[in-house]
Amino acid sequence: MSKITDKYKLNDVMYSREQIEARAAEIGRQITADYAGEEVIFVGILRGAVMWLSEVIKSVELEALLDFMVVSSYGEATKTSGVVRIDKDLTEDIDGKHVIIVEDVVDTGITLNYLKDYIGSRGPASVKVCALLDKPSRRQKPVDIDYLGFTVENIFIVGYGLDVAQRYRNLPYITSVTVVEP
Ligand code: PRP
Predict the structure, then answer these.
(1) What is the distance in A from the centroid of ligand 1 to the CA of 166?
(2) Residue 156 has what DSSP assignment?
(3) What is the mean pLDDT of residues 89-100?
(4) pLDDT in tens, 122-140
(5) Is pLDDT above 90 for 79?
(6) What is the pLDDT of residue 77?
(7) CA 67 to CA 43: how far, in whole Å?
(8) What is residue 181's predicted lDDT score, i.e. its pLDDT?
(9) Using a 6 Å cutoff on CB, does residue 163 contact ligand 1?
(10) Does the Cβ of 84 fall within 6 Å of ligand 1?
(11) Residue 3 exposure: Cα atoms within 13 Å on the Cβ side
(12) Separation of 112 CA from ligand 1 center, angstroms?
């Protein structure tokens, strides 16, 4: 059986840990200013959002609640199925609350488009989006990203929560990947 490292080659660092942490801190401070005096609930979309969410909230000085959804539309595939599956729903009651959905990447926009409607139907006071990466060239459904880390080209990237075949999510930086063995 071939190893994942035989199949995928990691290229040079694209966004370093320091760059990502600095951007996350800026966004955390911006959220603190935008929601001054308010309570906010951060909804992390697992699994990809785990690192980015953790980094952004370190710089948020507000009454902050955390919740998570597990959502999938890609499975093991690199192409979206177009159907968003909720594997774990919200735990908290978000009625009347300010919600910030946190994602690792907005690609076709299908996931966030669906989630904004879904979460919006639960009576929140507001719904905003915070994403580490945006790939606008891949968009099929419109999505407004209120707090964005970086915009990237349509290339295959991993790290900081993003995976290939569930691997490399733990890399503390973002890098592109070359497929060695298709
Ligand atoms: C990825 C990513 C987003 C979604 C973005 O999730 O985390 O949720 O795809 O793609 P879209 O804009 O084309 O909908 P994935 O289904 O790979 O699950 P994961 O978070 O566990 O990696």
Answers:
(1) 12
(2) -
(3) 98
(4) 999 999 999 999 999 999 9
(5) no
(6) 67
(7) 5
(8) 72
(9) yes
(10) no
(11) 4
(12) 9
HEC letters along the chain: CCCHHHHEEEEEEEECHHHHHHHHHHHHHHHHHHCCCCEEEEEEEECCCHHHHHHHHCCCCCEEEEEEEEEECCCCCCCCCCCCEEEECCCCCCCCCEEEEEEEEECCCHHHHHHHHHHHCCCCCEEEEEEEEECHHHCCCCCCCCEEEEECCCCCEEECCECECCECCCCCCEEEEEECCC
69 touches ligand 1 (CB under 6 Å)? no
Among 136, 148, 167, 181, CA closest to 15? 148
Measured CA to CA, the distance from residue 103 to residue 44 in angstroms comes to 6
Residue 64 has pLDDT above 70, yes or no: yes
Residue 9 pLDDT grade (very low, low, confident, very high; cuts 50, 70, 90): very high
